[in-house]
Design a protein that fits this description.
This protein folds into 3 domains: 53-156, Sandwich (Immunoglobulin-like); 200-446, Sandwich (Jelly Rolls); 456-516, no CATH class. 27% of the residues lie in helices and 24% in strands. The chain is built from 14 helices and 21 strands. The protein has helices spanning 2-17, 19-24, 27-42, 170-188, 212-220, 237-240, 243-246, 267-276, 292-295, 389-395, 445-454, 462-474, 484-488, 500-516, and strands at 53-57, 63-66, 70-77, 82-90, 96-99, 106-110, 113-121, 129-139, 144-148, 152-156, 206-208, 226-229, 286-289, 328-333, 338-342, 349-356, 359-364, 406-410, 415-418, 423-428, 432-439. Strand 8 (129-139) and strand 9 form a beta hairpin. The chain is globular and about 70 Å long. Its cofactor is Fe(2+). Residues 294-456 form the JmjC domain. One of its GO terms (cellular component) is cytoplasm.
Length: 523
């Protein structure tokens, strides 16, 4: 830069000595040129400065949701010299709202420019508001550079407790006492008492190595749940993803996220937990990683998606990453864990392939309005947050004489197909490893759109924006899937998608505002 400034000054001096040039070149213009040159060199954009970097994501249009899910951070450096990193989320006042571990970002080389990319979890503790990422990088020589991202928005997802545990009433304390007694009972219960792991009774239809045409006609098109066999014979995962070998896989040495933990732990720790503690817990911890293939993309090479589940058929593929619902997971689950009756989010279609262990499945078609022994509510999204799956299989299933679900024990190498709208409940009869994906293809898109519109206000309006983007992408190209109310819809629509409790809370707050005089009407 000094050489450039010197050159400009030298050029100016030469022009002063050249009387002919002075007559044709006004002195004011020379000064302005000199000032502009110096200023442009002193105020070089951060992305172009020597050794500096540029934050490509998040940008000012990015939306993060504080729900413990991962979002992508991308940094570009002209030099590629950055050795170590630190990163924090800062609020609108510049205060640190959350600090990430120092090794949060890893480099990926692309061409002549170094691109550093990492999926990071968005802490559930963050409240709704505008934030920036402050990222600092230390060069190998010891110099430290810091950069801030554009201002972007984070939607808070935290739910505050309505009760102080210290203020419990006597009847509430009695309820807790009974609950603890029941938990002790569950700890002593063997899953063999619920369903023998080697039970051959199976009422879920099975289909062996179907072609795409056969599967489409027999299962996908009519929406028939089934178990697919013979499609996992060539999967590397069948050997690599067993607990005993997977825990030592160098590809996942950075760890896994157990339950709602915000920091990863080594898989060896979870395997130790399975052996020593899980059997004594009523609701054992489960690894349910939606961002696993972003964190460890090499794992994607270990399984082969059947052509009848091709990702290219998924209408969600073109939705922006930050608006797309979670859609694929690796699940590692302890024996005795499971899920109560539920329909998958957004009425998506899904499949689950089992690598290790055994899972007991129960399934009801969408035509079943009420599942025996299950407390329903009006919103399918909430229906899977029920009590432990054990409850139904202990207290209801043994006494059913009619209206039975189709049911079966899934074994390693089996893929369960869950069509859109199908209710299902799962109990892990052993420690299990599985991979699962959800999608909206042409056979389920209509149901997906209806559910997304229904849940428009959920997650801070996030789902409503997902619906709008699907409409923008496909309404003109595939008009047969869209109804007039889809075209008229605007997100978020006040009250659309609210649970009964949400609506009660809204009305109570409106009444308080009216009584306090802050508003003149009750809405």
């Amino acid at each position: 830069m000094v050489e450039t400034i010197t050159g400009v000054i030298g050029s100016y001096r030469m022009q002063r000595n050249d009387q002919a040039s002075i007559t044709n070149y006004h002195i004011g213009e020379i000064k302005m040129a000199l000032i502009y040159t110096i200023a442009s060199l002193l105020f070089v954009p951060a992305s172009l400065a020597d050794g500096a970097f540029e934050i490509l994501l998040p940008k000012n249009t990015s939306l993060w949701v504080a729900n413990g899910k991962a979002r992508r951070v991308v940094i570009a450096s002209d030099q590629g010299e950055i050795d170590t990193w630190s990163m924090e989320v800062t609020d609108s006042k510049g205060h640190t709202a959350h600090a990430y571990p120092s090794d949060i970002i890893f480099p990926q080389k692309t061409g002549g420019k170094s691109v550093y990319e990492k999926h990071v979890l968005v802490p559930e503790t963050l409240k709704s508001g505008e934030y920036k990422l402050k990222i600092c990088g230390s060069l190998k020589g010891g110099r430290k550079l810091c950069q801030k991202s554009d201002t972007f928005y984070i939607e808070g997802d935290q739910v505050e407790s309505l009760h102080n545990i210290d203020d419990l009433q006597p009847h509430e304390k009695r309820f807790i006492s009974r609950l603890r007694a029941f938990e002790d009972y569950l700890r002593k219960l063997d899953v063999e008492d619920i369903w023998p792991i080697h039970e051959t009774h199976c009422t879920i239809p099975k289909i062996h190595k179907p072609s795409k045409e056969e599967f489409t006609e027999k299962c996908m098109k009519p929406g028939q749940a089934c178990i697919i066999t013979g499609m996992m014979d060539n999967w590397k995962a069948m050997n690599k993803w067993l607990f005993e070998t997977f825990q030592h896989d160098p590809r996942i040495e950075d760890g896994v996220y157990v339950g709602q933990r915000l920091t990863p732990v080594p898989l060896t720790n979870y395997v130790k937990y399975l052996k020593e503690r899980a059997a004594n817990e009523t609701a054992p911890w489960v690894i349910f990683m939606s961002d696993v293939f972003d964190l460890y993309p090499e794992l994607r090479e270990d399984y082969i998606i059947p052509d009848f589940f091709a990702e290219s058929d998924d209408f969600m593929n073109n939705v922006e990453e930050e608006l797309r619902l979670d859609w694929r997971w690796i699940i590692m689950a302890a024996k005795r864990s499971g899920s109560g009756w539920h329909v998958d989010p957004a009425n998506t279609t899904g499949w689950l392939a089992l690598v290790q262990g055994a899972k007991l499945w129960g399934m009801y078609p969408p035509s079943v309005y009420h599942i025996p022994g299950v407390k329903n509510n009006y919103y399918q999204k909430r229906d899977y947050d029920m009590e432990d799956a054990f409850y139904w299989w202990i207290y209801t299933r043994p006494y059913l004489k009619s209206n039975l679900p189709i049911e079966c024990v899934q074994k390693p190498g089996d893929i369960v197909f869950i069509p859109t709208g199908w209710w299902h409940s799962v109990v892990n009869l052993d420690d299990t490893v599985s991979v699962t994906q959800n999608f909206c293809n042409k056979y389920s898109l209509r149901n997906c759109l209806t559910e997304l519109r229904e849940q428009a206000d959920s997650d801070g309006g996030f789902i409503g924006r997902t619906f709008e983007q699907l409409r923008e992408l496909y309404a003109q190209k595939y008009p047969q899937y869209f109804q007039q109310e889809d075209l008229d819809f605007e997100a978020p629509v006040k009250g659309d998608g609210l649970t009964e409790e949400d609506e009660k809370s809204r009305r109570l707050q409106a009444l308080k505002d009216f009584l306090s005089g802050s508003t003149k009407t009750i809405v």
